[in-house]
Structures are given as structure tokens and as C-alpha cells.
Amino acid sequence: MSYAVKEMFLTLQGEGVQAGRRAVFVRFAGCNLWSGREQDRASAVCRFCDTDFIGTDGLGGGRFADAAALVAAVEDFWGAGRERRFVVLTGGEPMLQVDDALVDALHDAGFFVAIESNGTLPVHPRIDWVCISPKAGSETVQRRGDELKLVWPQPGSDLSMIEGWAFDHFLLQPMDDARGQANVDAAMALVMERPRWRLTLQTHKMLGLR
């Protein structure tokens, strides 16, 4: 199987429980909740995405012929040393492409493998860290994992149902749109009302990182 990757880069994880950790990000092309084209945004299931995942023309992107080729590129971005190797598979929706061969090859190269998924597809069972970001209006089938990251406010989200899912961490992330501070205030207010949740911010944007 070949893999279509929009971009790949070395950075610090900016969100969630793993925030601040050195990581290679692999952003897969394509998503099942939005085409990525602005003309389709209004009719998409997910209409607030702030990520370009179309094509394979980004930094480090391309079409990789097999898992070995993709993992070799990940290793090049990480650089020397095998200590605490960390890779984040994201998108778009990475589970449209992630398979046995890729997960096994990343593990063989010494990487701790994390994924950021919308949860509409089952996550590969050998992923080491599962972060699910459910989207209102979609069917979340992956209802267990390490962290659930809900972008807020998101009308139509059933918080009581979500809180019944089997995640170790429940995180609220203010939506990054024109409402700005109002979204931050709304997220903080909900955390104060429902202490099971924690606030998470997009620190990579604050720091000027990718």
C-alpha cells in the first residue's frame, strides 16, 4: 500500500496531554468529513477545520510507495538517536490510510506512535496513544482511548453520552475562529461546571510553531 502525505515535520506537540513533547508530525492527505475545499465547507459534516490536508505538496509531503519509505522519511526528520522517539499520525483523517505495515514499521524503528483521529473509523489496535476528537453530526465508533479532545463550542455535542466513553482524559479545546476569546470563555465555563474536563490550548500557535 502507498501512502499520501500532505506534510511531515519535526516540532513540539502543541495540544493535549502530550503537549510540549518533541514529535514528528505526519499529516495524511484526505478526510471523510470534509473534502478540504472551501466551496464544500458549508455542506461538510465538520465545518470548522483549520488544517490544509489536500494533496501531497506540503513540506516533507509526498506519495510514499510503502511503509519502509514513509518510516525512513520519519526517521530523517527525527534525526540521530532512538531515545523517546515520538511520531504523531494526523490529518485529515489518518485511519483512512494507517495499516498494519506502517504501525509495525514505526514500532520497529523505535517510535512511540500517537494518532489524532475523528473517531469515525476504528483506530488500529497497536497504536500507543489514541486521541479522538469527535465531530457533532458524525458517528463516533472509537469510544475508548487515552484522550478525548472536544473542540468547543460545538452545537449538537452530547456531553453526557461522551462522558460515558472509556477515555483516560477528557479535554476541551476552544474553537479557533472569529469568536476568539468568547470560545475560550465558553470552554473555561464548561470546565468549571463539569470538572471531569480539562482545558487544553493550541500552544503551538502561541509559540509560532507548525
UniProtKB/TrEMBL annotation:
Binding sites annotated in the UniProt record for S-adenosyl-L-methionine: F48, C49, D50, G92, S133, P134, K135, Q173, P174, M175, D176
Metal-binding recorded as keyword: yes
Gene3D superfamilies assigned to the protein according to its UniProt record, in alphabetical order: Aldolase class I (3.20.20.70)
Sequence positions that bind substrate: L12, Q13, G14, R27, T90
Entry note: cofactor: Binds 1 [4Fe-4S] cluster. The cluster is coordinated with 3 cysteines and an exchangeable S-adenosyl-L-methionine. Binds 1 S-adenosyl-L-methionine per subunit.
Keywords of the record: 4Fe-4S, Iron, Iron-sulfur, Lyase, Magnesium, Metal-binding, Queuosine biosynthesis, S-adenosyl-L-methionine
All residue ranges annotated as the Radical SAM core domain in the record: 18-210
GO molecular function, one term: 4 iron, 4 sulfur cluster binding
Name of the top EC class for this enzyme: lyase
Binding site for [4Fe-4S] cluster: C31, C46, C49
Pathway: Purine metabolism; 7-cyano-7-deazaguanine biosynthesis
Highest taxon above the source species: Bacteria
Residues that, per the record, bind Mg(2+): T51
SUPFAM superfamilies attached to this UniProt entry: Radical SAM enzymes
Enzyme Commission (EC) number: 4.3.99.3
Cofactor entry: Mg(2+); [4Fe-4S] cluster; S-adenosyl-L-methionine
Similarity comment: Belongs to the radical SAM superfamily. 7-carboxy-7-deazaguanine synthase family.
Name assigned to this protein: 7-carboxy-7-deazaguanine synthase
Gene behind this protein: queE
